[in-house]
Design brief:
Blueprint: H1 2-13, H2 17-30, H3 35-47, H4 51-64, H5 69-81, H6 85-98, H7 103-116, H8 119-132, H9 137-156, H10 160-173, H11 178-190, H12 194-207, H13 212-224, H14 228-241, H15 246-258, H16 265-278, H17 286-290, H18 297-322, E1 334-340, H19 349-358, E2 364-370, H20 378-386, E3 389-392, H21 398-407, E4 412-415, H22 426-429, E5 435-438, E6 453-457, E7 472-476, E8 505-509, H23 518-530, E9 534-539, H24 543-555, E10 563-566, H25 571-577, E11 583-585, H26 594-601, E12 606-609, H27 618-625, E13 632-633, H28 636-648, H29 650-660, H30 663-666, H31 672-691, E14 699-700
Parallel strand pairs: 1-2, 1-4, 2-3, 4-5, 5-6, 6-7, 7-14, 8-9, 8-11, 9-10, 11-12, 12-13
Helix pairs in contact: 1-2, 2-3, 3-4, 3-5, 4-5, 5-6, 5-7, 6-7, 7-8, 8-9, 9-10, 10-11, 11-12, 12-13, 13-14, 13-15, 14-15, 15-16, 19-20, 19-31, 23-28, 28-29
């Protein structure tokens, strides 16, 4: 028998496989427990594509010699080829327990892990091989693939730190792979590292300079870095490379609005409005769309609906598969969770902090789910103290964050960010809570099936507009916006300190530059021409807006020196300087929101024109809650007429300021306890419907 085995083995080595197979089978017919013959016949079957038979034969050899690492290794190869990957991994792991230094086993196990989608385990196997053979190109490429795949998994799950680490290691395996640099940039951007992301995108562009998506994403981070001219150039390049990169066109227009470049405004807006109707696959930022002149509430609904389907459908499906359970709580405190990336030095803090402090702890337990960095400011510290529970979810993946919120048994989850920068609204798409609410962050409908309510008031969302909101409307009696009476106010500067002429009538607008549209700006210029010794005081948002606004003023016959730009200063100093102005002129179609409350808090009258969309009606709502309806106009013609009258008839403006002197004590706008009571009634009404087994429905708090 030994001679027969040796002959078969020799033929096998010479590649005479049919002859070798015949001898192996002859041998096994007489000696069926010949382990080596079983093993080598199995190897031969594997070599000739009969992987299932190979696995069975080698498996029989292993039953005879279970501690033979070579048998186990080849068994793994056959099992892998037969598609039995989990069994293959088990075979390799058994072999490694016998031969832990066998690098071929580590490599083979890595390959199986990779096919199983166990990329982290695969990477570990390949690293062990490269530790000994660092120049092995095949293994290095396999490691690179595993790391890239693991990075993609982590990024999709919202584990951006781990994704970044994977891509960084993968880049070291292959410095010439543009996709790795691009994906690294995406992870870095998600982590709030725009400078690093820009460097990664720029490296990717060195390798693939004609990739429109990379130019677009580089534009996004340059925008975040304040390098708006470079960002605009990136978007223009992206569109030259791909004219159907719709989101790049939207970014380009929005950044031109930020720098007050209105040359192609009307044409671009009209094109984007057509896309909203005709191209649902176009990813048009709902936030950018809000500020585009002429857009209607119906179009904003369509824009948000398309965005939700494009961005969140996969997560919605995941949430339906998870199906978090939500038990009815018959009694006990209502648990309200507030989700935001702006629990920091941000306008949101100056709206909600006192509200959180005043929540009735006998009836409510209040949670913060924060994904903003802790910048150690007093505002952040006060917010952390205000909540019963302040949970930092930055390190958590999308699913883990949702699981945490669900485990906390939150009854009502309020998204305070919406479709704005750094949003993690996808957490709500998993439906971790029974009632989910859109409020404050995004001034419009989210058009998402995972939002039950939008908190508003009946001026911002009047009955004739309700069909343009997919959420049910929870209407507060005064105004949807809260206020913090403890906001810090610095020492009032002099006009000289701020570069303002002593005797001038000071029109002002401290809105961001993207809200300034040419139609309203022309009114402002006419007012300057009609009111001698008047100036317009604007927020100095960026150098390009400053230059463009000065040029536009000159083109309308106004000396550019009559435009005075206020530098950014700490919020306390910013509030204090409001007292130097005479009249705040609002913008359209995107009003002053928090900025309106800031001005009124400091005794500065705000003149607004109410439009037909959420974002264009907020200032009017605030003014009505402040008992100043006389400062609300319904057309730009009325707006201009009233602005001129207030600037040229001192008695009229003085009467309004006298009325405002009692504003803090007498108006609903700054009655924060009243606001908190009404908001809590809204929450209770939501809960009552839920406990009664009723679906969400619109209601008004009385």
């Amino acid at each position: 028998m030994n001679q027969l085995y040796q002959s078969a083995y020799a033929l096998h080595r010479e590649g005479k496989l049919p002859q070798a197979e015949a001898l192996y089978r002859q041998l096994l017919s007489g000696e069926p427990r010949h382990a080596n013959a079983l093993h080598l016949l199995g190897v031969l079957c594997h070599q000739t594509g009969r992987h299932q038979e190979a696995a069975e034969l080698i498996g029989s050899a292993i039953e005879l010699h279970p501690n033979n690492s070579d048998f186990l290794n080849n068994h793994g190869l056959a099992l892998r080829a037969a598609g039995r990957l989990i069994e293959a991994a088990d075979s390799y792991q058994r072999a490694l327990r016998l031969a832990p230094k066998d690098l071929s086993l580590h490599n083979n196990l890595g390959n199986v892990h990779q096919e199983l989608g166990r990329f982290e385990e695969a990477a570990g196997c390949y690293r062990r091989v490269l530790h000994v053979f660092p120049k092995d190109t095949d293994v290095r490429n396999a490691l690179c693939h595993a790391l890239a795949s693991l990075g993609n998994q982590c990024h999709d799950a919202g584990r951006y730190l781990q994704a970044e680490a994977c891509y960084e290691e993968a880049v070291q395996c292959n410095l010439r792979d543009a996709a790795l640099h691009y994906n690294l940039g995406n992870a870095q951007r998600a982590l709030g590292k725009p400078a690093k992301a820009a460097a990664s995108y720029q490296q990717a562009l060195k390798l693939t300079p004609d990739d429109a998506d990379i130019h677009n994403n580089l534009g996004n981070v340059l925008r975040e870095l304040g390098r708006l001219d470079e960002a605009i150039a990136c978007y223009e390049t992206a569109l030259c490379l791909n004219s159907e990169l719709y989101h790049a066109k939207v970014h380009l227009l929005h950044q031109r609005q930020h720098i007050c470049d209105w040359n192609l405004l009307d044409k671009s807006v009209e094109e984007i409005r057509q896309w909203v109707i005709a191209k649902p696959e176009a990813q048009i930022s709902p936030f950018a769309f809000l500020s585009m002149p002429g857009t209607t509430a119906a179009e904003q609904l369509a824009c948000a609906s398309h965005w939700t389907k494009n961005r969140y459908q996969q997560v919605i499906n995941q949430g339906e598969a998870i199906a978090f359970s939500h038990a009815h709580k018959p009694s006990g405190k209502i648990r309200v969770g507030y989700l935001s990336g702006d629990f920091r030095l941000h306008p949101l803090a100056f709206l909600i902090t006192e509200l959180i402090e005043l929540h009735d702890r006998k009836q409510f337990e209040v949670f913060a789910y924060s994904y903003s960095a802790d910048e150690k400011t007093e505002e952040r510290k006060r917010l952390q103290k205000a909540f019963d529970h302040f949970v930092d979810i930055r390190p958590l993946s999308l699913l883990d964050a949702a699981k945490k919120i669900h485990a906390d048994q939150i009854d009502i989850l309020v998204d305070l960010t919406g479709f704005t920068q750094t949003s993690r609204t996808d957490i709500l798409a998993l439906r971790p809570t029974p009632i989910q609410v859109n409020w404050l962050g995004f001034p419009g409908t989210m058009a998402a099936p995972f939002f039950d309510y939008l908190i508003s008031d009946d001026f911002i969302t009047p009955p004739e507009q309700t069909q343009h909101y997919t959420e049910k409307l929870a209407l507060l009696p005064d105004c949807y916006q809260p206020n913090d009476r403890k906001r810090p106010v610095g020492k009032m500067p002099t006009r000289k300190d701020c570069g303002l002429p002593d005797g001038a009538f000071v029109f002002c607008c401290f809105n961001q530059s993207f809200k300034i549209m040419p139609t309203v700006f022309e009114i402002w210029m006419r007012l300057l021409n009609k009111v001698p010794d008047s100036v317009l005081w604007l927020l100095d948002c960026n150098q390009w807006a400053r230059a463009n606004l000065c040029r536009e003023a000159e083109a309308r016959g106004v000396d550019a020196t009559r435009l005075i730009f206020a530098p950014r200063v700490p919020i306390a100093d910013h509030l204090a300087r409001h007292q130097l102005a005479n009249l705040f002129l609002d913008t359209l179609p995107y009003n002053a929101h928090t900025t309106t409350s800031d001005a009124l808090w400091m005794g500065l009258p705000v003149l607004t024109c109410a439009g037909d969309t959420f974002a264009s009606r907020v200032a009017a709502s605030i003014l009505k809650a402040a008992n100043l309806p006389e400062l609300v106009t319904d057309s730009l013609g009325q707006y201009e007429t009233l602005a001129l009258a207030l600037a040229t008839e001192p008695v009229k403006l003085s009467a309004i300021k006298d009325k405002m002197s009692k504003l803090r004590e007498a108006s609903a706008l700054f009655d924060t306890p009243r606001f908190v009571s009404n908001l809590e009634k809204a929450y209770q009404m939501m809960i009552q419907r839920r406990q009664a087994g009723l679906p969400a429905e619109s209601f008004k708090v009385n």
